[in-house]
Design a protein that fits this description.
137 residues, alpha/beta, 4-stranded mixed β-sheet, 2 helices, 16% helix, globular
């Protein structure tokens, strides 16, 4: 409340979030949270569950970005997505992803647009394109 006892204005966007945040609907949210922690050192920001223990919503910070996820309910079904994520060491992230159960789409390769990148698919069917900038534009 402000000094007059009125509610203070709330910023339209929560702290730790960007204007655009991927939201993944997955069949096993806990499995994806483990994957995100192991591969991208994700830090959990929020987690809510319904009375049956099913994940309603979770959000994690990865680097300077935020990723949100939830498990399906009612008309909302699991929906594989694709995400491009920058990391300090793409080769190490690729190895962590494979160790965490991902399948390779392609091994780390230096591309002509300045990124060294790779691709993996997680157990939920999401495609992760992982990159490290190695050359200026």
């Amino acid at each position: 409340l402000n000094p007059k006892g009125l509610p203070m204005a709330v910023h339209y966007q929560p702290d730790n979030y960007r204007a655009v945040n991927p939201y993944l609907l997955v069949s096993d949210g806990d499995r994806l949270l483990r994957f995100l922690r192991e591969v991208f050192d994700a830090h959990q920001l929020a987690l809510t569950r319904d009375p049956q223990g099913r994940m309603r919503h979770a959000s994690v910070a990865i680097g300077d970005g935020t990723l949100m996820l939830g498990e399906p309910s009612g008309e909302w079904k699991p929906q594989p997505s694709s995400v491009y994520i920058y990391v300090p060491d793409v080769d190490a992230a690729y190895q962590r992803a494979l160790a965490a159960g991902a399948s390779s789409l392609y091994e780390p390769t230096t591309h002509d647009y300045g990124d060294r990148g790779c691709g993996v698919v997680d157990a939920e069917g999401n495609l992760w394109f992982i990159g490290t900038r190695v050359a200026g534009e």
